[in-house]
Write a structure and sequence with these properties.
167 residues, elongated, 6 helices, mainly alpha
Length: 167
């Protein structure tokens, strides 16, 4: 059925797009950390915090596609996750660069609009799952170089509490 989105559908649409991009950036951030931690021969505690932060920022300035290419080139992940990342990046290109060009008219059709919403939701769900799956090899590497993930998690939790004002 052809019709314009109502107010609730429009709010849901913008919410979905924002949520998708936010979760995409979590994947991007995890991959950047992975590239720095696993992709370079840096020994634990060999950098001062400012130097480590600077190196991380330089990695995270890269596009998601560039980071994925570097992670794949260095063979940091199993092939199945690499394949998922390639598909994820393709869907990211659609969402960020092509969704308006390819699917704007679909938002005026009830069934096609639902398909667009499902595609965005699927992208978000894959971002959430990918991020969790990326943390497994990252944690394995952290353990292999002699660091304690529980200690790192506690430090991260303390930083989060401070951000929330509960320090």
């Amino acid at each position: 059925m052809q019709r314009q989105m109502d107010r609730d559908e429009l709010a849901y649409f913008y919410h979905c797009v924002g949520r998708a991009i936010w979760h995409m950036q979590y994947v991007e951030q995890t991959l950047g950390q992975m590239l720095l931690i696993m992709g370079r021969d840096i020994k634990p505690n060999s950098l001062d915090p400012e130097e480590a932060e600077s190196m991380l920022l330089s990695v995270q300035k890269k596009t998601l596609g560039a980071i994925i290419n570097e992670v794949v080139k260095k063979s940091l992940l199993p092939a199945d996750i690499e394949n998922r990342l390639e598909k994820f990046n393709s869907e990211r290109r659609w969402l960020v660069h092509k969704s308006v060009i390819e699917n704007a008219d679909d938002l005026y059709n009830t069934h096609k609009r639902a398909d667009v919403f499902k595609r965005i939701d699927a992208f978000t769900n894959e971002a959430i799952l990918l991020n969790k799956d990326l943390l497994v090899p990252l944690e394995m590497h952290i353990v292999s170089i002699g660091l304690n993930p529980a200690e790192l998690a506690e430090k991260a939790e303390q930083e989060l509490r401070a951000l929330k004002g509960f320090a």
